[in-house]
Amino acid sequence: MATSAVGADSVSDTAPSQWEMSTTNPFNGQYYPTYTGNGYFAARVPAQGQGFSSANVPTSFQIQGFYTSQSDTNQWRVGGPAWTGLNVADSSGSFNDAFKSSCAFGAYCQLEDGLLSGGLSSGNDHGGYQGSGFVQGFGSGSAKATLTLSGVSEAGIYDLVVRYAAGDPGDGSSNARTVLVSAGDAQHRLTLEPIEDGSWDTWKIATIAVSVPATAISDGKVQLSIAGVGNGSDPQQDSRVNIDAAALVKAGAAPEATPSGSTPEEHRLSDYKQTLNMKTGAITTHARWTSVSGNVADVAYTVLPSRANDQLGLVNVTVTPIVWKHADEPLVVTDSLDTQAASNASFDRSSDAQAHRIALTTTLDGTGQRATYVSKLQGSGTLQQSGLDGDGAIEQTLSANVETGKSYSFTKFVGLATNQDTSENTVAQTTAAATAVAEQAASQGLDAAITASDAAWAALWQGDIEITGDDQLQSQVRASRFYLLASVGERAWSPSPAGLSSDSYAGHVFWDTETWMWPSIVAQDPSIAKAILQYRADRLSSTDGAAFNALNNYEWDAATKSYVKKSYGDGSALRFPWEGGLNGKEQTSSYFFGGHEIHITADVALAFWQYYEATGDVAWLKSTGYKVIAGAANFWVARSYKGTDGKYHIDDVTPPDEWSSNGETGRNDSAYTNVAASKTLAIATQAASIVGKNANAAWQERSGHFDIPQDTQRNITKEYANYDGTGIKQADAVMLSYPWQNEQSAERTANDLDYYSTKVNEDASPSMTDAIHSIVAAELGRSDEAMWYTQRSSTGFMRGPFNQFTEERGGGSAFTFLTGAGGFLQEFYYGYTGLRWGTNGITLNPILPGSLKTITIKGMHYQGSTFDIAITPQRTTVSVTAGNALNVTNRGTAAVGKPLTFATRTPSAHDGYGTLIGSISTPAGGDNGSGSYVYPTDSVFTKNSFDLNTFKVYKDGKNIRFVSQVDGQILNPWALEGMSLQLMHIYIRTDAHASTKPTKAVAGTNINTDGAWQYVAIANPRTQTGAIGSTGLFAADGTRIANASLSVREQKDIVLTIPASAFKNIDLSKAAFQIDMMSASESTEGVNNIRPVVSCDTAADAVKEWRFCGGLGSVTNTSPYDSDTTDPNVIKAILPKSVKASEVLKPKAGGAVLPFVTLEAAHQVQPTPTPDSSPSSGTAGNAASSGAGTGAANTTAKPSGNSQTRSKPSALAKTGLNLGSISAAVIAMLAAGISVFAISRMRKSQR
């Protein structure tokens, strides 16, 4: 999948582009169709602007609560019929036809462009396919795909070629697969051999001879069909394959590639543009279309699910003929309700020609859920209706004679009614209800319906996030809020990970709702937030709800290797399902996650409490909220036990980091789960006092007394009791700070962030991980790092042209991924604002990253107050726009007409590194040793990831930090300490009188320093303890002076944190340094974990995949693991500006000799760099360059002087006034140009 996002430009608040996202080419491989909805039902709109399509991302038409089932614990949501179809045609073909790939004799035809039935769908979650995707779902006896192929001139024997993938279907089966194929003749069984390695990314070709009879050819066209035979329960009837394309060719010939058709012009289209208007929810599509016969017309579509009436959908097409060759040839407009998008259902169709109405009722298998769409068509022309066409649609057409230059408008008013909307679940009642909606809208007209919908959207957009300084970020934020709102409303349904955009994850409800999406809704739309919570509150019963789950919890028993039912509580406990559906029973297909990933019960309770905090609605807490919170608390009482250590424990769970269990190993004392349980008990105790109930004594006994595993050496929270540093799926322990607000030190919070941020998998981790990291970084005052995470959490996950989230950077199964959108929005609601809800006010702790000018959050709600938060670099203003006065804890009170202004938080010095002592910089490039070294070929060795360009020394309280920055991206593919591939040595010369003779560096480097060194600081990702060579600070004699903490920040800064006491009275600003970047290895491949550089000539490809080459030796099996040690194993060193790497790093008997470099002193004023300019960019230009690869550094040595400050002292500070009695001088100071903010800021600095 593409990895770039295309955002809309934004200029000003009134500019349409701020609210619109558009594309002018849906054929360029970067197009992902978007969707729109009203919270009850939705439509993904394809490139042609309406109707059903399987191309790119298949269109989907989701309805809230539309679940089918096989049992009450196996329910899943499915899409309804395509309700938007309104195709335009002349006698030679339709507007929709222009969007299909060419399908002609002799070339591959893309199967996803064909007619799909029997549960087939288009997919794109495997690699290697052609066109826009492949077709999946052939494991059904009713599955069938049909293509219409042109260019067949005569009957005869031809080859039918099928391109397919037959990987492991999940049961390890190696069955040959079978499909039935036909080219207008009888069906033939085609055997498809399985893929040897079980991969679904590997594609094969199968060929079979077919006889095309003359009777099958019509106007040179033949229908090809491919059908499934079964799901493999019978090995001879196994059609579990994905099929990419098919071709009909001359016997023995190879198919040509499908014509690219990569521009609209190749599809007989011009002036194409598709736009999503986020302000109104309308998707418009315009193009000038040339038909096959040469007619030319401008075609403009609008699709809009009404926000004013959530049972109404609107589709309009306006056609303006430009060239119409035959006056008697009619324009044909076809209104369809298409069953292709639906599944697991039966259908009832009806029509009324006099009323210009068609109706389609869908009744789902298993549950009997019923939905009826009624479409009323308005427009000029002669009406004709048909009950069925080949794809199962019901249609009505208007045929109108047209004139060039005139515009013709056709509108379908679509009413939806489900059994949720009627007193009885019957076809008659849902049809009558849907008819009433369509008729009423039609009687009022299109303009009235659009006006009402626009007004409803305008009310929602009173809540907005405005950003100045980054137009793309503004578009991404608005898009995320729009997609979230399009999937939620005031009906009691909870959004699934993809909302109403698709049926991803079976439309089930996970913790994604309460933890990731809901917090971004309650901030500005509390009434919708309340409705979402009602979904949980309606599903508490002991027969099919959360109480049932607590009494019927299935957990894995390792001893018996089976699932065992366990009951928790006396019936008062609630366990919310890991996957929720139509009822409240556990719906997960894996018992393990259902029975063990129980933190969701606390996540739900937290959301219920936060709703009370945000609204102050005591009546709701009494009637609805308290029973949920209390039931969750009772579950944690039943699920925990008191250990011999006096603490409470919870065993055998799956933490948010699901990889920790892999579906088979429960973890004990998950830090997240235990803190969440403890906080739930505290919340329940507080809620009881508010509603006048007696709190369960066990709640108070346990709250605050759970075991939270610690790693005392690193001063971090362990993810679970036996956590060993392995890689993780997503944010887990870092979330103790937010959202759970665990009582812990800022140092612990920072350590957890720095440690676990490098443990998450780069490709598989969802965007919410970066969102949490951004929020926590902002909390710590590391504002520019917070913005770095913000950019990571959005752009890399978004797909163009409409800024839609995918689940993973590479795509993932959920699209559009609203969980990601919700997490992203929280960075603005709770990250940069520092907003936290309270029962008697809100807390704000705002901060602004250097790359932005302002952030303004409008239309926030708290306990009857509507307010805005405006953050600038200097000050933050809270303005109440309606309702009650607002208490901002420790800040003051804002009221209507009386805004509250206070200082925006100053970012921590150097984004948390501390006070800069000095730095050394060197030009980028030269990460090739003496000039001949070549990077390993494996993709984990990213470009410039060893290109050391800056070294900085900081003092931060009791610690010294050495920060070495590279010009590329440091990955941690094996989840080692901060990094996996790099290894650094920092030699420190503190005694200017020591020997100046070459001195051996640490073994394995193959280098010397050009004088004696007294210390070496080592960053070794593989070994954190032990002898010299491991991470730490060592004396020249090998004595470990101090342990060191190794971390990597922003995938570019290698950070060694060492106790300042280890340097005693040494002035590091006057020390000299020799800094080397090397490649890390296992202990059996290099001395002190330093991987030798080998010869490119003698190394095998497998060796060069993982080792730098360009040296002299070859790999040996014994120490030093290198047949030639005259070549340095240093990839890049920071050198004085007068020294060339090509000279000092060339092979030399006894080892190369590398010189020391001194620090450039810190300036008094040095602004923190923004994410758009690396910290080294301001000084790199000062370093003399002797050409590429010199590694020359700026070596000016000066004492550091006073500690660095972020900004110049204000005029007020220079006055020396007593700030405790400053009020008497305020007027005079204002007259002198000194702001009240400056006074406030100085007060803060004195505390």
Task: Show the helix and strand layout.
Elements (H helix, E strand, L loop, with lengths): L19 E4 L11 E3 L4 E3 L22 E5 L2 E4 L4 E9 L2 E2 L14 E2 L4 E3 L3 E3 L10 E3 L7 E6 L6 E10 L11 E6 L5 E5 L11 E9 L9 E7 L13 E9 L18 E9 L4 E9 L5 E10 L6 E12 L7 E8 L6 E8 L4 E8 L5 E9 L3 E5 L7 E7 L7 E11 L8 H18 L1 H15 L3 E5 L2 H16 L24 H7 L1 H4 L3 H12 L8 H6 L1 E5 L4 E5 L24 H6 L2 H17 L2 H22 L1 E2 L5 E2 L21 H21 L5 H6 L7 E2 L4 E2 L28 H11 L10 H13 L3 H12 L3 E2 L4 E5 L2 E5 L2 H14 L22 E9 L2 E7 L3 E9 L2 E3 L3 E3 L5 E4 L11 E7 L26 E9 L2 E8 L15 E8 L9 E2 L6 E3 L5 E5 L12 E4 L4 E3 L2 E5 L3 E7 L12 E8 L21 H4 L25 E7 L4 H4 L7 E3 L2 E2 L1 E2 L15 H4 ...
Parallel strand pairs: 51-59, 58-62
Antiparallel strand pairs: 1-19, 2-3, 4-5, 6-7, 6-23, 8-18, 9-12, 10-11, 12-17, 13-16, 13-18, 14-15, 14-17, 19-20, 20-21, 21-22, 22-29, 23-28, 24-25, 25-26, 26-29, 27-28, 30-40, 31-32, 33-34, 35-36, 37-38, 38-39, 40-41, 41-42, 42-45, 43-44, 46-47, 46-61, 47-48, 48-56, 49-52, 49-57, 50-51, 52-53, ...
